[in-house]
TrEMBL record:
Any Gene Ontology CC annotation: ribosome
Short name of one Pfam family: Ribosomal_L10
Entry protein name: Large ribosomal subunit protein uL10m
Coiled coil, from the record: none
Chain segments annotated as transmembrane: none
InterPro entries: Ribosomal_uL10, Ribosomal_uL10-like_sf, Ribosomal_uL10_bac_type
Keyword Ribonucleoprotein: yes
Family designation: Belongs to the universal ribosomal protein uL10 family.
Superkingdom of this protein's organism: Eukaryota
Keywords per UniProt: Ribonucleoprotein, Ribosomal protein
Gene3D superfamilies in the record: 3.30.70.1730
Classification via SUPFAM superfamilies: Ribosomal protein L10-like
Length: 251
């Protein structure tokens, strides 16, 4: 029985199935959309419509705070001190200092103090704020980097330059001498001038010499006039004698 069923169900040799799966390659999708040119893509991106964003209602906006910049009390104090420095001193120069040792700076302060010259350090921000609103605004380009002020109540420029020769780290930029703005060359030329005491002595000696010659100058013209008159009289005397002799001969 089992053998009979197996013989009926199992296919015989040489048997072909009624249906077969056949794949047709010609029916596959071979067409794809061509990509746009890069210039056209850019043009479409630029001309794309962007709808405006809806505005928020005024009630939803937080009012902005107005911050007012207030001057620091220390900066205000330094600015007033700097103003007093420019009012009370005749010599104010701006010096640029490089990497100088602390001991050398102390020695420089002591040497300058012998000539009544002091060194004052002020922040550049405070110095520029003061100079910007003062008559010394032309000193603004000098206040840049590491700068320091040399001040003195007397215009002792020559002593200051002689002291600074021993410290090449300190470079003189310019300054104000007796309310006159000067460059480096101007300060050097000013130091070569004679002191006021020497000039006053020369003026006094010249005036004394002139007053001593006043008496001789006043007597010069009368003496010269009298000499001319005497010479004139002497020249006329022979003429008068000849006239008298001629008159006697005619008589």
């Amino acid at each position: 029985m089992a053998a009979t069923l197996c013989g009926r169900l199992l296919p015989k040799s040489g048997w072909v199935p009624l249906t077969q799966n056949v794949r047709h390659g010609s029916k596959a999708v071979t067409r794809h959309r061509k990509p746009l040119h890069i210039l056209k893509q850019k043009l479409l991106a630029v001309t794309e419509y962007i709808p405006p964003k809806p505005r928020a209602p005024p009630e939803a906006l937080v009012p902005r705070r107005k911050w007012t910049q207030m001057e620091h009390p220390l900066a205000n104090l330094l600015r007033k001190d700097l103003e007093n420095v420019f009012e009370e001193n005749k010599l104010i120069v701006v010096v640029h200092y490089n990497a100088i040792h602390t001991d050398d700076l102390t020695r420089l302060k002591l040497r300058l103090k012998k000539h009544d010259i002091r060194i004052r350090f002020f922040p550049n921000q405070v110095t520029r704020a003061f100079l910007n609103n003062s008559i010394y605004c032309n000193l603004l380009p000098l206040v840049c980097g590491k700068t320091v002020l040399f001040i003195s109540k007397q215009a002792k420029v020559k002593e200051m330059l002689q002291t600074m020769k021993h410290y090449p780290e300190m470079v003189l930029l310019g300054g104000c001498v007796e309310n006159t703005l000067m460059s480096y060359q101007g300060i050097v030329s000013y130091s070569k001038l004679q002191s006021i005491g020497v000039i006053q002595g020369q003026l006094v000696s010249d005036l004394t010499m002139i007053t001593s010659q006043t008496h001789s100058l006043l007597r010069h013209h009368p003496v010269h006039l009298s000499a001319l008159l005497q010479q004139h009289v002497k020249q006329k005397e022979p003429v008068d004698v000849d006239d008298t002799v001629g008159q006697e001969a005619a008589a």
